[in-house]
């Protein structure tokens, strides 16, 4: 019965609404989970969602890097069930996603292993993050990265994966492994596992400090004063992240918050519990992302 | 959607579990299934979710060699518990061009390991004129050619009532050529160019050589050359071409041509000169085509006319527009050289080939004269080609339909303002070059 309902629906759709056909999928094979009705697989494909390509999951599935901005759909704080999962999100200016390459040490296909230089073509505002982004061009490819404080169009930026015996005097914007930098440099875009892409210290105006280097590992202080131990082959960028006055900006009016996609909180007064108020705690212990060999390895 | 269809679909959805999703493998344009799995949300609802449920991995199919799966293929209907039969892909017994799947690139007949870099009419190269000069081994000199200006200054090379007629041509293209309040840019730039060409063509009475030319449009150009280790090609349609029965005379004497070997091409490290060019692995080597077959009566390319495209995907900045002009002018010259002298690289052509180009956006003109001296482009040293580029020459300042008023003061009046007659003289000089 379900099957006949479905086939009738599909038949009526194909006969009356050919305009729903996606122009890109003229022959789409439909395949239900467990049922395999032969009539469904023979009818022409039809589109039930208007634009499949602008949901957030599509961004995770793309494999070819592009510098073109990609359209994204606003979620409004709703999850896949359609209910609000995060309050206070909704509306705001439309934003296009620019795919930022967080793995700074990415070699071109035929030039593995050598340090390379790239030229900054432009530094521009990114609606999806607080920092500015810079378009780098080097060799045959162009890519977006998070810009550092004094980066300007026309600069030449170096990226290297080599750790020498002497520490390198790094210029701002260059990317080196932690083992090659002198202790005390301001760093950003920190990788915690080498080759996985930077996950920490990416927000506007932030910077970490390289505290010390201990046989094969390096200890970095994050902007929250938390200390982290990572392998010295992890790549970091030198300098502070761009847009340093981001925390000093004044919103000025409720409308500006709405433009940013922040919905008002509920105006109801609620008694605050034990979570509220200033807390003075000791620093948490240092987090280590280095898998040291266990002592009891028999 | 139809209410009937909605009712049926809602009924079916309610019968299944709350979330029923069809796994549709999206077929790419070539017919091969792409790696992207687009999942269709069968919930027919008004708000189309930005977040979709996490994809459940389908059950892993275990293949044990030597063990046959018992399928329900023989029984011709689904039986729970038996495996799904896998049939060989069906192929049509005859060739139907509507349902043709092209093979992957590696299996094509013209596949080569070494990629070729192709410049087409939609390419926008990062470094602009510098990159085009490096790719074509050209020494670009700014500014117009002096003897062309003197050619235009002669009274017999000027139109009667030249200024008035040109201004009428501009007014026609910018104001009178439409039923809407204002014509669109691509329309008025095209009309302006054709009007100016018509005006220049009226000199055919006094200059009979103008009659030995013809305008050609939408011809496909192809030229191949080697630069260093890489192979480059120009392919595409560049627009309007003025071709003639007689070749253009050479601009520079032999001495100056030999002096170009002392000049050094600008490098733009760390950007590679092949950036933004399309890399193809399936190409025909030695593809050279002037755009016309066999014994075309007007074989020599005289002037190319470039207009800005209306395609929003390939909007070119002025620098990239000039680079496109240089590349296509070079392509035309090279294709002609290959036809005359063969495809073997020659370090000095005894008769250099001259081609001109004019690019416009309706108000601002770019004039280019290109002389091809050599087809030996593999090294960076040696004799280079020459180009004279006159950038950003305005024909008029403003052509406003409504006056521009700021704070109750008319800053720019309606109508044509700031007409510059020198620009049209340059245009006419390029047109009459070789005919006067």
TrEMBL record, chain A:
Protein location: Mitochondrion
Protein name: Large ribosomal subunit protein uL2m
Pfam families, alphabetized: Ribosomal_L2_C, Ribosomal_L2_N
Domain Large ribosomal subunit protein uL2 RNA-binding: 77-159
Record-stated family: Belongs to the universal ribosomal protein uL2 family.
BP GO terms, sorted: mitochondrial translation
InterPro entries in the cross-refs: NA-bd_OB-fold, Rib_uL2_dom2, Ribosomal_uL2, Ribosomal_uL2_C, Ribosomal_uL2_RNA-bd_dom, Translation_prot_SH3-like_sf
Gene3D superfamilies: 2.30.30.30, Nucleic acid-binding proteins (2.40.50.140)
GO cellular component: mitochondrial inner membrane; mitochondrial large ribosomal subunit
GO molecular function annotations of the record: RNA binding; structural constituent of ribosome
Keywords, in A-Z order: Mitochondrion, Ribonucleoprotein, Ribosomal protein, Transit peptide
Mitochondrion is among the record's keywords: yes
Large ribosomal subunit protein uL2 C-terminal domain ranges (all copies): 170-289
Organism of derivation: Poecilia reticulata (Guppy)
From TrEMBL, chain B:
Cell compartment(s), UniProt: Mitochondrion
GO BP terms, alphabetized: translation
InterPro entries named among the record's database cross-references: mtLSU_mL37, Ribosomal_mL37/mL65
DNA damage recorded as keyword: no
Record keyword Ribosomal protein present: yes
GO MF: structural constituent of ribosome
Listed Pfam families: PDCD9
Signal peptide: none
Protein name per its UniProtKB record: Large ribosomal subunit protein mL37
């Amino acid at each position: 019965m379900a099957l006949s309902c479905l086939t009738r629906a599909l038949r009526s759709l194909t006969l009356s609404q050919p305009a729903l056909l996606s122009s890109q999928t003229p022959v789409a094979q439909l395949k239900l989970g467990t049922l395999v009705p032969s009539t469904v697989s023979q009818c022409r494909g039809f589109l039930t969602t208007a634009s499949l390509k602008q949901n957030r999951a599509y961004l995770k599935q793309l494999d070819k890097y592009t510098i073109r901005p990609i359209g994204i759909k606003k979620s409004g704080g709703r999850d896949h069930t359609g209910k609000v999962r995060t309050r206070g999100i909704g509306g705001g200016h439309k934003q296009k996603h620019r795919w930022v390459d967080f793995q700074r040490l990415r070699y071109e296909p035929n030039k593995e292993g050598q340090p390379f230089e790239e030229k900054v073509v432009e530094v521009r505002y990114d609606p999806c993050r607080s920092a500015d982004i810079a378009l780098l061009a080097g060799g045959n490819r162009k890519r977006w990265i998070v810009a550092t404080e004094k980066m300007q169009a026309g600069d030449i930026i170096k990226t290297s994966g080599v750790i020498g015996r002497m520490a390198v005097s790094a210029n701002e914007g260059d990317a080196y492994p932690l083992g090659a930098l002198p202790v005390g440099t301001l760093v950003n875009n920190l990788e915690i596992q080498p080759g996985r892409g930077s996950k920490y210290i990416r927000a506007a105006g932030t910077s970490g400090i390289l505290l010390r280097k201990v046989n094969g590992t390096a200890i970095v202080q994050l902007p929250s004063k938390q200390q982290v131990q990572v392998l010295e082959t992890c790549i970091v960028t030198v300098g502070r992240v761009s847009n340093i006055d981001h925390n000093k900006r004044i919103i000025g009016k409720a409308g500006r918050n709405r433009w940013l996609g922040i919905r008002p909180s509920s105006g109801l007064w609620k008694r605050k519990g034990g979570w509220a108020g200033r807390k003075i705690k000791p620093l948490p212990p240092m987090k280590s992302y280095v898998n040291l060999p266990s002592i009891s390895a028999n | 959607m139809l209410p009937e269809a909605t009712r049926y679909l809602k009924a079916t959805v309610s019968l299944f579990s709350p979330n029923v999703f069809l796994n549709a493998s999206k077929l790419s344009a070539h017919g091969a299934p792409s790696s992207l799995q687009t999942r269709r949300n069968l919930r027919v609802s008004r708000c189309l979710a930005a977040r979709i449920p996490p994809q459940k991995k389908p059950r892993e199919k275990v293949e044990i060699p030597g063990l046959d799966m018992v399928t329900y293929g023989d029984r011709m209907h689904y039986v729970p518990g038996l495996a799904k039969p896998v049939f060989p892909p069906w192929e049509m017994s005859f060739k139907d061009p509507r349902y043709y799947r092209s093979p992957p690139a590696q299996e094509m007949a013209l596949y080569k390991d070494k990629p070729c870099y192709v410049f087409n009419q939609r390419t926008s190269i990062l470094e602009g004129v510098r990159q085009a000069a490096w790719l074509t081994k050209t020494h670009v000199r700014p500014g117009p050619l002096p003897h062309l200006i003197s050619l235009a200054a002669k009274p017999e090379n000027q139109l009667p009532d030249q200024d008035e007629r040109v201004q009428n041509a501009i007014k026609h293209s910018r104001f009178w050529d439409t039923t809407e309040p204002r014509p669109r840019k691509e329309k008025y730039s095209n009309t302006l160019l054709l009007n100016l060409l018509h005006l220049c063509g009226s000199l055919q009475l006094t200059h009979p050589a103008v009659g030995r030319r013809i305008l050609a449009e939408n011809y496909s150009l192809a030229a191949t050359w080697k630069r260093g280790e890489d192979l480059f090609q120009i392919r595409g349609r560049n627009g309007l071409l003025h071709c003639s029965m007689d070749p253009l005379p050479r601009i520079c004497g032999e001495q100056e041509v030999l002096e170009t070997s002392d000049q050094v091409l600008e490098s733009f490290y760390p950007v590679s000169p092949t950036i933004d060019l399309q890399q193809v692995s399936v190409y025909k080597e030695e593809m050279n085509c002037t755009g016309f077959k066999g014994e075309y009566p007007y074989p020599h390319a005289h002037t190319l006319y470039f207009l800005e495209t209306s395609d929003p995907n390939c909007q070119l900045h002025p620098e990239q527009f000039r680079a496109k002009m240089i590349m296509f002018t070079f392509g035309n010259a090279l294709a002609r050289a290959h036809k005359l002298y063969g495809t073997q690289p020659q370090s000095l052509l005894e008769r250099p080939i001259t081609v001109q180009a004019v690019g416009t956006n309706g108000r601002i003109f770019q004039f280019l004269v290109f002389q091809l001296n050599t087809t030996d482009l593999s090294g960076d040293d040696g004799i280079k080609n020459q180009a004279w580029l006159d950038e950003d020459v305005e024909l008029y300042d403003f052509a406003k339909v409504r006056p521009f008023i700021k704070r109750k003061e008319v800053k720019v009046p309606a109508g044509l303002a700031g007409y510059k007659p020198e620009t049209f003289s340059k245009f006419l000089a390029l047109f009459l070059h070789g005919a006067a």
